[in-house]
Amino acid sequence: MGFDKLVNGWTVVFPLAVLLYYFFRKRYETTTISSTLFWEQSMRETRVSPYLKNLQRNALFYLQMAALLLLVFILVGPYLTKEEAVGGHTILLVDTSATMLASNEGTSLFARNQEAMKKLVAGLPGEPITIMTTGKEPIIVIREETDGEAITTAIDKLAVTYEHEYMERAIEFAKSITATGGAAIHIYTDSLDRAVFSEGESAVAWTIHGEEIPKVNVSIDKFGAVKTSEGTEAIIRITNDSADAQTGTVHIKDLLTGNSLIDETFSIEGGEEALLSFKELPESKSLRAEIVVEDDYEADNTAFVLLGNETGEAVVDGQLHELVKRAFEAAGLTVTTGSTTEMLAAQDRSIIVTNDVSFLKKGTKPVIIIGRNDKSTEPVAGAVRNTSDPLFTIADISDIYVSALYPPFKSYTTIATVGDKPFIQKSKRGDIVVLADIELTDWPLHPSYPLFVWSSAELLRSETDSLGLFVPNERKAVLSGGTENGLEIYTIDDEYVTTIADGSSFIAPTRPGIYKALDGGIEKMFAVQLERSEKELDQGSSYKIGHTENGKGNEEGKNRIGWLFLVPLLFLLLIEWEVQRRRGYPN
Amino acid sequence: MNGELFPNGLAKRLGALSILSRSGRLGHHKGTHRSRKTGSSLDFSDFREYHPGDDLRHIDWNVYARTDKPYIKQFLDEQEMRIHILLDPTKSMGADGKWNYARQLAIALGQLALKSGDTLSFSTWTDGQDYFFRKKGAAHRASVTKFISGIDAPGSTEKFTDRALASIPKAVTVLFILTDGLEVVGKWEHLFRRLPGICSDVRVVTIHSKAEEAPNYEGDIRFVDIESGDGIEVTMTRRAVQDYLEKKSVHEAQMIALARKFGIQLIRAEVAEGVMETVTKKMRHAGWVR
Question: Which of A180, A172, A139 is nearest to A475 (CA)?
Fold first, then answer.
């Protein structure tokens, strides 16, 4: 409670004056008489107990004092600080990361937070509420909504997106919303360090609702599988975050055939991690590992792996121009420079970029050939033209200049020409052949150059039947055939999930698992995996930072209670009047 | 002191009066009051036939001579009265001159009794000491005055009604109780209920002072009870006084009603009117003295 008009405190003079007046009032003269029998009898009606007697004798005084003090109290403007509604605008920042699924006694933290939010909202009728969810791209679910029904519905609709919360990003976003005027921001998360709040933001009151209950968590930290000559080899790293030893079982399942491959028990000491490896598994394309263990967080008890895919590396022939390597780096690949032997060794899992045409005959996977090491160039002139090959959907190469070309491969499909000479060719296996050295063109000066390189790398990757690994909600461009239907996403059990208009706006599904993407009749698989940070449960705490001090938000933060005392005051005056009427003045 | 409390002049003015009682119960000793029984006084009462066993000395020989039959001549008997005066010694009697007045009244009644040749007993007490006086005959008039005058102040903190019965001697013809009556009616009822068993002629004099009759206070007064020491704070308003007087008159009315119920005579006396007035007018009017 506080007082707005403490200045009015001077009115305390009045009750003091009355007090003084009563100090100076007549005292009782003591007289001894034969018997107080009759006086007592005549006074008996007004005498109940010593305290009440005192009260009765001084009734008028007490009433006057009470009335005056009440008046002073009202004048100084008392108010109660509303605990929740600091500022007119309340923002609920809801962490929707997978760790919010950690449960306590059967209820997930997320569900509990939903209840807490509803309770908070119920206490703020008519106040504008904004609800935001976290993620790489924070989303405003409702903005400055005042309809309680709509808010409750919105809260009910909130769901976990499994994506890492990127709380700093969300906080910055929330700050930008509240740039004008104060607001109360409630963050519903599991743990948030105080350090993320910078000082001196007086307009915003942060309330962090953290998870204070410690959790037991056993998670699959890593799950990997490689093809070997003997079959498939899988490695699982299991981490125990709790203090006590945990035991459970590991199940590895082939998702395509539905065969269970491994059922094994394990036990881990508290705080330790265990590495389990399984050799000579039957060949499989997608595997799911699951641990069955008593813990509070289930989302990280499952992991997926897709085999024979995900060529995130490129090996560039050392003889090629430096700009080639740069271009592949720019396309987001891990690029190494290698000799022929190194390239041969890496051919199965990397994109090979070379001018050695012998690679066209080696290995099983397509390669990128830039230039030819077996022929020499011939000068060429003319405009560069490309076909409607998917490689050129985003890279228009018509304005580049090419000075000389190598002779073409006869059986290959030409997809770009200079004049009437083939410039870029594709083999049946999928190899991409650029019949010119980079230094013979001005291509690197054009924006189409890195785009072409990216498209090529994507194409080679998509030659496999996998789109790769994603984290939940990840936005990543994939090379699609550009068909009308776009990409249709199904789960491994052939349940329809969503349709994505084209590959460049691909967003991974939220739930972890193996998915199929149907691209114009071609089925490609991809896995959605939890981020590593989402496999660790942090115990946090609830706290408050900052309070709205000035500004108009402040006014609404006070619950004025002065008027409440007006009725008792009037009542007191009425009693006073009645007492005076019946008993007369006290002397 | 003695002279001041009960001057001789006062005694002389009371000279003609004597205490009257219609009660049949008199003392066994010879006195001055005629009894309904026949006795040995000089006043003729009746004749009756002689029966064997009667005293031969009482035969009226003149009548025998005329009628040849023996007759017994009977005379009226004269017997004494036993008069007891009980003085309320509670501290409340000490206020407003009530004590002096009560003592004067006791002396006056005592002298009347002694002068008639009756047996007078007087009793009162203070805390720790009992006063008792019993004499017969007019010769002791001075000593009763002295005895009663010697009790300077009332000093009993006990309730009068609790103690009264114990200090009344047996076989009392007339019992005078001098009190201010300032005790709750219930107590009085308790006392009055038992008095007729002790004495058939009980006379209560309630003594009231002027301050009690018409309280003349102003402002805020804290009244302290002289006996219990309890204080009560009263703001003197007309209403409060009126209330007080009402309560007082109710109390007195209840006392009178109680007294009547148990065959006790009660008169109220005021300090201001003086002993003479009380005795010569009120008591005479009530038929207590003649």
Answer: A139
Min Cα separation B288/chain A (Å): 28
Q: From A54, which residue of chain B is nearest by alpha-carbon distance?
A: B233
Neighbours of A548 (CB within 10 A): 23
Q: Predicted confidence band at A555 (pLDDT cuts at 50, 70, 90)?
A: very low
* pLDDT value of residue B124: 92
Report strand pairing: A421-426 vs A432-434.
Answer: antiparallel
Task: Find tokens 């498939």 and name the residue.
Answer: A232
Asked if residue A270 lies in contact with residue A239, where contact means CB atoms within 8 angstroms, the answer is: no
What value of ipTM does the predicted structure carry?
0.74
Task: Specify the CATH number of the domain B2-23+81-285.
Answer: 3.40.50.410
Among the partner-chain residues A26, A37, A42, the one whose CB lies closest to the CB of B184 is: A37
Per the CB < 8 A criterion, the answer to whether A255 and A286 are in contact is yes
Average pLDDT along chain A: 79
**B216, B230, B247, B270: which to substitute to probe chain A, counting the most A Cβ within 10 Å?**
B247
Whether B231 sits inside 8 A of A37 (CB atoms) is no
The tens digit of pLDDT for each residue in A138-174 reads 888 888 888 888 888 888 888 888 888 888 888 888 8
Q: pLDDT tens-digit profile of A298-316?
A: 888 888 887 765 566 788 8
pLDDT of amino acid B214: 86
For chain A, give the percent of residues with pLDDT over 70.
87
- Looking at beta carbons, which residues of chain B come within 8 Å of A38? 244, 247-248, 251
Residue A490 has pLDDT above 60, yes or no: yes
d(CA A423, CA A435): 5
Asked whether residue B85 carries a pLDDT value surpassing 90, the answer given is yes
And the tokens for A118? 């509803």
Of all residues in chain B, the one with the smallest CA distance to A26 is: B220
Q: A250 phi and psi, to 5 degrees?
A: -110, 135
In B, minimum Cα distance to A50 occurs at B232
CA atoms within 13 A on the CB side of B228: 12
pLDDT tens digits for range A408-429: 888 888 888 888 888 888 888 8
Across B280-286, average pLDDT: 89
How many contacts, defined by CB atoms under 8 Å, are there between A and B?
84
Report which listed range, A40-49, A551-560, B135-144, is most confident: B135-144
What domains appear along chain A, each with residue ranges and CATH number?
A: 2-82+561-583 (no CATH), 89-214+537-556 (3.40.50.410), 218-308 (2.60.40.10), 313-463 (3.40.50.880), 466-528 (no CATH)
Q: Work out the minimum CA distance from A26 to partner chain B, whole angstroms.
A: 7
Nearest to A32 among B98, B217, B224 (CB): B224
B246 and A42 in contact by Cβ < 8 A? yes
- Domains of chain B, by residue range, sit at 2-23+81-285, 33-79
Distances (CA, A) of B111 to A109, A226, B82, B106, B124: 110, 144, 13, 8, 17
What residues of A are in the B interface, CB distance below 8 Å?
26-43, 57, 584, 586-587
User: Between B227, B231, B246, which is nearest A35 by CB?
Assistant: B227
Instruction: State whether A31 and B221 contact (CB < 8 Å).
Output: yes
Indicate the residue of B182, B184, B234 with minimum beta-carbon distance to A34. B182
Residue A548, pLDDT > 70, answer no
Is the CB of residue B238 less than 8 Å from the CB of residue A584? no
Q: Among B207, B225, B236, which would you mutate to test the A interface (most chain A Cβ atoms within 10 Å of its Cβ)?
A: B225
Q: What pLDDT does residue A59 have?
A: 75
Token pair of B253, please? 């009315």
The answer to whether the beta carbons of residues A271 and A241 sit under 8 Å apart is: yes
Q: Least CB-CB distance to B217: which of A31, A32, A587?
A: A31
